[in-house]
Structures are given as structure tokens and as C-alpha cells.
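User: Is it possible to get a 3D structure for a protein together with its bound compound? The compound here is S-adenosylmethionine. I've pasted both below.
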Amino acid sequence: MNTAAVRRRYGWVASIYDWANLEGLLYARARARAIELLDLRPGARVLDVACGTGANFALIERRIGPSGTLVGIDLTPQMLGRARARVARAGWSNVTLREGDVCELALGEPFDAAVCTLGLSVITEWERAWEAMATAVRPGRRLAIMDAGFPEGTGRRGAGPLAWTLGRLFAADCARRPWRLLERDAAGPASERFTWGWVTAAAGAR
Ligand SMILES: C[S@@+](CC[C@H](N)C(=O)[O-])C[C@H]1O[C@@H](n2cnc3c(N)ncnc32)[C@H](O)[C@@H]1O
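Assistant: Yes, that's possible. Here is the predicted structure of the complex:
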């Protein structure tokens, strides 16, 4: 799906996203693990690529504290609107939200860590997005990906209702397995599987 079509899709998905993605059943454990693997410290400067409605924010804020900085980037204004409301509700004053295609934005000062959860399976130019994310981080600092896809070793035989929903509703490509980019490029990569092998949390150093 091209970038304009992804933006249109998430424009209407935004209003149902936080319950329709079945977070508790499918992703909560893997998400928590991906953020844990970032090894964040108070004061860290963190990039959340394709941050959506801000599902990672509380996990990150808990670790970086008020002296840290969190920058969330997303393509879709309606998703960012939800993220902005979440930030306001929680009273975080160290979060900056930026609207745009992560492949096209200048990401600014280097980060201590970057994460992308359920984003690389959706972003049209996902390999470019990974490169942008990886180069935004200082050498030696941490990168993490959490994403869904066909379990390793199953090819497309793993296709079923979950793959159908991810593809049709959330515009996610289950064949990408974007954690393989991290396993290929990062130093000391570690990957863990969740949700019957459908969800992977992976992290390593730039
Ligand atoms: C499945 S949601 C994931 C949201 C959030 N990271 C999470 O874990 O719940 C995918 C998000 O990717 C965003 N997105 C898609 N293409 C993008 C791009 N090129 N640049 C930035 N964000 C993009 C969409 O707007 C959407 O919010």
C-alpha cells in the first residue's frame, strides 16, 4: 500500500485502534519486553518511530523520567491526535510529536535509543525507515523492534484470521518479518517470540 493510502487507512482506524488491535491478547507482553530491551536510563533521549496513538509512551516515560526526552513520529494526524490526548492526560511535558513520513523527515540530534512497534510491517518504504531509525541513534546505543508476522519457518502457511485482520484492517504485511533487519544490522541482537510465534520483540546496539 502506498504512503497516501496508509495515511488514509489510519485516518479512520485511529478512532478504533486502541481496542481493535487486541493489545492485551496479542502485543502487551512483547511491547513491554521490547522497551525493556532498550535498557533506558533516566534522562535518555528516545525516538518512537510510527508512534501511533502512543501505546509505548507510558513504558518509556517510566524509565526516562522527566529529565528525558521522547520524540514520537507518525504519518497520520488522527493517530497523533490520540497520542497528544494521551500525553495531555498523563501530564508528560517532555514529549514532542512530529507528523510526517519517517523516511523523509530530518530526525535532528542523535538519540540514545529508538523503537518501532508494529510500524515496519506497515510503512511503505520499511527498509528505508529502518535505516533512518538506525542512523538516528548514536553508535553503540540501543534499537528495538516489536512486530507481527508469519511465525519463522512457516512461510505463508501460517496465514489465518490473524494475518487476514492484520493485512485487511491494519494494512500490515505479515511476510516482511522486519526484525530480521535488526538481526542483520545490529550488534549483539536478541529476539524473543510471543503470541504463538506471531509476534517478535528484538533489540540490539547500533
Ligand atoms: C499499527 S500502527 C502502530 C502504532 C504504534 N507504534 C503501536 O505500537 O501501537 C502503524 C502506524 O504506522 C504509521 N505509519 C505508517 N507509515 C508511516 C511512515 N511512512 N512514517 C511514519 N509513520 C507511519 C501509521 O500512521 C500508524 O500510526
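The radius of gyration is 16 Å. Residues 152 and 165 are 19 Å apart (CA to CA).
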